[in-house]
Specification:
The protein is an all-alpha fold. It is built from 16 helices and no strands. It has one domain: Up-down Bundle (Na+/H+ antiporter like fold), CATH 1.20.1530.
């Protein structure tokens, strides 16, 4: 089957998944519906294909959504986040101390695969570092995809049934109520922010580049709204596809070893996260919902989507995920070399 036909099949399955979630009244239909539909199709051997560069472009609107929320009043509140942000390095250290032995000793992965599987950084960055270190890129892809899949699937259920958060509400104003010129500025900010960030080698370029550029436009008053609801929903659709198609071509061995390892690790991560969330709330550093979204190590794009729809404090949530990823990307290659010294088992 040609790539265009695989892509068409993937989009059709994703649309079916979104429609079923909408009809059933399930949370986050445009994210979870495509994600789970593509996952199930991949598990039965369907020939799937991601959306390529267009799918990455659609992610830029999440960066635009965050950047448009950065106003002078939000900047004034950033010093108040220092106490909560200071706990992020400890959070990462606990994850590493638990995760690395789990993958190395329990599941038997080699050092680079175990180390970068345990690191709660961006999926693409961990794949690049893991490949450079000689790790199993396919295993890393499946482990991190499973981590994101489990956390992003379970988190909305907890939010819906425990906090009563309405995740079926539109993530913004409708397109017809938004100034077309401002929409055009948002599209340009997304595209150029992405490409400029990519050119300078910024990690998470498709989200952080648009976020930074849009924040500048927001602070200057050129952007005064978030992207319209329909655009955010479309971004969710393509993010769901991106996670689901990671399982395309999966073998029984990969399902038994790599996906099982990712599933166990996701549950371990959830337990660690809940301990830190309780600590943050107990210290009075943030409301429970904001702490929950900030300290769950799902994918950056996926957690931003959930935060937008839940009406959470975007500055708080994004700053914690951003710091987590910066620390992991900066320090993980250095610490990995210490673990991999000659003579270590």
């Amino acid at each position: 089957m040609t790539s265009s036909r695989r892509r068409a099949l993937t989009f059709a399955l994703a649309a079916l998944g979104a429609a079923l979630f909408l009809v059933a009244g399930l949370p986050l239909p445009f994210l979870l519906g495509p994600m789970l539909a593509c996952l199930l199709a991949a598990l039965i051997g369907a020939p799937l294909a991601g959306a390529g560069q267009f799918g990455i472009f659609m992610r830029t609107f999440l960066g635009v959504a965050v950047g448009s929320s950065i106003t002078p009043s939000v900047l004034a509140e950033l010093p108040d986040l220092a106490g909560s942000l200071a706990i992020v390095p400890l959070f990462i250290a606990v994850i590493a101390l638990v995760g690395y032995p789990l993958f190395r000793r329990v599941f038997g992965f080699d050092h680079p695969t175990a180390w970068y599987a345990a690191m709660p950084g961006g999926l693409q960055d961990m794949l690049v570092f893991g490949e450079e270190a000689g790790g199993d890129v396919r295993a890393l892809s499946l482990i991190h995809a499973t981590r994101v899949l489990v956390i992003v699937t379970v988190a909305p259920l907890i939010m819906t049934f425990y906090w009563g958060v309405d995740l079926s509400q539109p993530p913004g104003a409708p397109l017809r109520a938004t100034d077309p010129v401002e929409v055009g500025v948002m599209v340009a900010a997304g595209f150029f922010g992405w490409k400029i960030a990519e050119r300078v080698g910024l990690f998470g370029a498709s989200i952080l580049g648009p976020m930074i550029l849009t924040a500048v436009l927001s602070l200057s008053g050129l952007i005064t709204h978030r992207p319209p609801a329909e655009i955010i929903q479309a971004a969710q659709f393509f993010i769901g596809i991106a996670v689901g198609v990671k399982y395309a071509g999966i073998t029984w061995r990969e399902l038994r070893v790599d996906v099982s390892a990712g599933l166990v690790y996701a549950l371990v991560l959830a337990g660690i996260s809940l301990i830190f969330i309780e600590l943050i709330v107990w210290l009075g550093l943030a409301p429970a919902l904001d702490a929950f979204l900030a300290y769950l190590p799902g994918g950056q794009a996926e957690m931003v989507v959930i935060a937008i729809i839940a009406g959470a404090d975007l500055a708080y949530v994004v700053s914690h995920h951003l710091l987590r990823i910066i620390i992991v990307i900066t320090l993980s290659p250095l610490i990995s070399r210490l673990f991999d010294r000659p003579g270590r088992p």
